[in-house]
Amino acid sequence: MHLTIAICDDDPLQTAYLTSLVSDWKKTTEHTCTIRSFSSAESFLFEYAENRVWDILLLDIEMGEMNGVTLAKTVRNTNSTVQMIFITGFPDFIAEGYEVSALHYLMKPVSPDKLSSVLDRAVTNLIKKEKQLCIT
């Protein structure tokens, strides 16, 4: 399965760290991945308007003008299958994650093992939701 993964975080060091973790995870699976990073919710939404093929979103909560929860709500309005994982240093927004059916809420600093486990669950969910047509 080919996965498209977006990392939305306004901290370049955090973005680089998460990209590295996702790349390491990719090497341990049979999946291929396209990983893109975005420094703001607005930059992601600009890309999303043109291309809605995202499978997994790793979203920081506290970003510039638009936060990760608002971004998640916007995406969820048009995409019910995308797997959303919030990654933040603030536990205050956990309840809002349920409103958008977020898969998980990881606290910074993110453990490589924990992220791998959550990404595995995301792929399992995507496979379950994959549309299939069986002809007999």
Topology readout:
Blueprint: E1 2-8, H1 12-27, E2 32-38, H2 41-50, E3 56-59, H3 68-76, E4 83-88, H4 94-99, E5 104-107, H5 112-129
Parallel strand pairs: 1-2, 1-3, 3-4, 4-5
Short description:
By secondary structure, the chain is an alpha/beta fold.
CATH architecture: 3-Layer(aba) Sandwich
How would a textbook summarize the main sheet?
5 strands, parallel
Query: Please, what is the CATH homologous superfamily?
Result: Response regulator
How many β-strands, per DSSP? 5
Oligomer: single chain
The SSE string, one letter per element, is: EHEHEHEHEH
Helix amount, in percent?
Answer: 40-55%
Instruction: Give the total of domains.
Output: 1
Tell me the radius of gyration: 14 Å
Describe it.
The chain is α/β, with parallel strands linked by helices and 136 residues long. The protein has one domain: Rossmann fold, CATH 3.40.50. Helices cover 43% and strands 21% of the residues. It has 5 helices and 5 strands. It has helices at 12-27, 41-50, 68-76, 94-99, 112-129; strands spanning 2-8, 32-38, 56-59, 83-88, 104-107. Strands 2-1-3-4-5 form a 5-stranded parallel sheet, with helices on both faces. Strand 1 (2-8), helix 1 and strand 2 (32-38) form a beta-alpha-beta unit. The radius of gyration is 14 Å and the shape is globular. The two termini are 24 Å apart. The mean pLDDT is 90.
Short key terms for the protein model shown above:
Rossmann fold, single chain, 136 residues, globular, five-stranded parallel beta sheet, alpha/beta
